[in-house]
Amino acid sequence: MELNRRTVIAGAASAGLAATAYGAGSASAATGSPGGRPVREHFGTLADGTRVYRWSLENGGTRLKVLSYGGVVQSLEIPDRHGRYANVVAGFDDIADYVAKSPYFGALIGRYGNRIGKGRFTLDGKAYQLSVNDGVNSLHGGAKGFDKHVWDVEPFTRGSDVGLHLHYTSVDGEMGYPGTLRTKVTYTLGRHGEWRVDYEATTDKATVVNLTSHVYWNLAGEGSGTIEDHELSIAAARYTPTDPGLIPTGELARVAGTPFDFRHAKPIGRDIRAGHEQQVQAKGYDHNWALDKGVTAKPEHIATLRDPRSGRTLRIATDQPGLQFYSGNFLDGTLTGTGGRTYRQGDALCLETQHFPDSPNHANFPSTVLRPGRTYRTTTIHTFGA
Ligand code: BGC
After folding, report:
1. DSSP characters for 310-338?
2. Signal peptide location in the record (predicted)?
3. Which ligand 1 atom minimizes the distance to the CA of 103?
4. How many Å apart are CA 67 and CA 343, to the nearest integer?
5. Separation of CA 115 and ligand 1 centre (Å)
6. For 101-152, how does the pLDDT look when each residue is reduced to its tens digit (9 = 90+)?
7. What one-character DSSP code corresponds to residue 112?
8. How much of the chain is in helix, strand and coil states, percent to nearest 5?
9. H or E element: which one contains 92?
10. Which end of the chain, N or C, is less surrounded by CB atoms within 10 Å?
């Protein structure tokens, strides 16, 4: 259900379409129109009868489709150097697949991106036990994280921007986390086709929070094969090594002289089989890079991903201190994506801007504590080129 439901265009032109356009002058096509109001269509229904909607928006050459379930980016299309469009994110066609087997495809992650060791932390002298869903650890918010809830979605246009506000309130104690967390995430497509994600949250009790987006990228097109020839650069001289359960040890290790050195762009496949014990343990890259810039007041450029064949480029700017680069290690050929092809290991990758995993248990990591009266606010901007 959306907040602030606007005028439904029920005229003859849109009556026969699955999509419902909102606001005067909206295009009635399900794909949205460049710079026009986002368009809504029914995507599927959950077992409890809740309807899940898909919103389509387009601006500056980028086409985005977002589900009310998990705030999932189900499709993101951008042109290559010849103007040919491809959907560059992994996803499913069917809501049942998202519910039953999604490895967080395109989803919003909360309350805590990545892992918290043994699902335990202490805050202000009080011990908390979180939902444990990854061996003995808590991953991406626990068994029912923000990716598995239906969000209230409110479309907007503002100047040359087009976007969606997504709201979800997590009740006190949900998945073991203290405090009622009121969350608002705004997806904006700007006039140059950039996709901006603004996160906001408030709480009524001291808590920890670390929100992120779990898009799986393949700039050659989802389902087109490996991302090992994509070139990646990350502005980080250090990363956080992990134990076998992928919990940071607390060390901030130097990347120099290791396969983790992405300070200059290199193909992902170049060092992925180097046999570094950290890679063997994670089956590839699945680590948090401690960005050189640290926490910043404004988003700063921290990573570039480029597919040399298509020329498609993704540049990421954030105010967050960390970047989780996950090379799709656990994709195993059992999931079939929107294009009808299966996803195998390394067929897509994630670049999750975040605070460091397990921060609540490491005093030397930037703090993830949010207190009543304060607003958690972070921004990540994805800019596309070809
Ligand atoms: C984590 C991986 C995990 C994946 C789930 C990533 O953010 O770092 O360890 O398997 O999410 O799909």
Report:
1. T--EEEEEESSSEEEEE--TT--S-EE-T
2. 1-29
3. 12
4. 21
5. 9
6. 999 999 999 999 999 999 999 999 999 999 999 999 999 999 999 999 999 9
7. B
8. 10, 40, 50
9. none
10. N
Burial (CB count within 10 angstroms: exposed 0-12, middle 13-18, buried 19+), residue 22:
buried
Q: How far apart are CA 51 and CA 377, in angstroms?
A: 29
* Residue whose entry in the numeric block shows the structure tokens 């920890």: 208
Identify the pLDDT of residue 32: 64
Please give the mean pLDDT across all residues of the chain. Answer: 93
DSSP secondary structure letter of residue 367: P
DSSP per position, 252-279: -EE-TTSTT--SS-EETTSSTTS--HHH
Fold category of 103-385 in CATH: Beta-galactosidase; Chain A, domain 5 (2.70.98)
Contact criterion met (CB below 8 Å) for 259 and 271: yes
How far is ligand 1, taken at its centre, from the CA of residue 142, in Å? 13
Q: What is the dihedral of CA 335, 337, 340, 343, to 10 degrees?
A: -50
* Residue 290 CB neighbour total at 10 angstroms: 21
Pairing mode, strands 120-123 and 126-129: antiparallel
Strand partners, 303: 234, 316
Protein residue whose Cα sits closest to atom 7 of ligand 1: 114
- CB 386 within 8 Å of CB 313: yes
DSSP-derived letter for residue 347 is S
Q: What gap in Å lies between CA 117 and CA 132, rounded to an integer?
A: 9
Separation of CA 260 and ligand 1 centre (Å): 17
Peptide bond preceding 111: is omega within 30 degrees of 0, i.e. cis? yes
Q: How many CA atoms lie within 13 A of 317 on its CB side?
A: 13
Query: Tens of pLDDT along 243-276?
Result: 999 999 999 999 999 999 999 999 999 999 999 9
Print burial letters for 369-384: b (CB count within 10 Å at least 16), e (below 16).
bbeeeeebebbbbbbb
Give the residue ranges of DSSP H helices in the chain.
12-15, 95-101, 277-282
Q: Calculate the alpha carbon distances from 379 to 159, 181, 295, 317 in Å.
A: 19, 18, 11, 8
Q: Whose CA is nearest to atom 12 of ligand 1?
A: 103
Residue type at position 130: L
Asked if 322 contacts 290 with a C-beta cutoff of 8 angstroms, the reply is: yes
